[in-house]
Amino acid sequence: MSKKLVFFDTETTGNTEGDFLCQLAFKNGKETFSALYKPEKKIPPEASAVHHITNKMVADKKSFAESGDKEKIKKLFEGESVIAVAHNAPFDLIMFKKEGIEPSHFICTLRVARYLDKEEKIERYNLQYLRYLLEIEIDATAHDALGDVLVLEKLFERLLKKVMGENELDKEGAIEKMIEISSHPSLLHTFKFGKHNGKRIEEVIKTDRGYLEWLLAQKLNGEGIDEDWIYTLKYYLEK
């Protein structure tokens, strides 16, 4: 059975497990979908500053569960032949899971981009940074869910070609490789923040192990969703 790619993005009340969906967009072949929903908590101003969705805009909307869209979307994304594609997919998948939707297969373009950047030349991996770094020319509004989906589709095409070329795979084989890369956290190698910015983690652990232990505790006890850093810090601390 041939696989079908569905590109999607969510906009939410924040970036923790305690946050909720307020916009969903996806592109399924030529079909595009975008809708606003009233989340279970108020949209804070810091979230509105990113996606420009306000509480007034969703005041008269139904929640995702009550909207009538859920069953159609659940059936689509949970289809055995469907591959859900998102940037930083683990976060979007947590938002989906809270709504009772669990896709059978997924590709995370952020994890694939990190995997391909073997020499860590890319400073940041967020979607809009990659859009302009790779000079992806597309008419799409940043941080609007549908706009991000259109950028995501173009980014995926670029990454797919690189996976095919570097691994001598056909399109189907490269997609399977991208699913495999996406299925586990990324192992990071360099700090790009904090007092050890620019240093290799393998060097820092020799001189400042306590910092890695402190950072891991922060990640484990925080509300953020940061599987890659938790995986990385455990890896180096347990070596």
Automatic annotation (TrEMBL):
**Does Manganese show up as a keyword for this record?**
no
Pfam families given for it? ExoX-like_C, RNase_T
Q: Which UniProt keywords apply?
A: Exonuclease, Hydrolase, Nuclease
Any idea where the Exonuclease domain is?
A: 4-165
Q: Name one GO molecular function term.
A: 3'-5' exonuclease activity
Listed CDD domains: DEDDh
Q: Does the keyword Nuclease apply?
A: yes
Where are the membrane-spanning stretches? none
Q: By its UniProt entry, which SMART domains does this protein fall under?
A: EXOIII
Name the domain of life this protein comes from: Bacteria
Q: What is this protein called?
A: Exonuclease domain-containing protein
Please name the source species: Candidatus Nomurabacteria bacterium RIFCSPHIGHO2_01_FULL_40_20
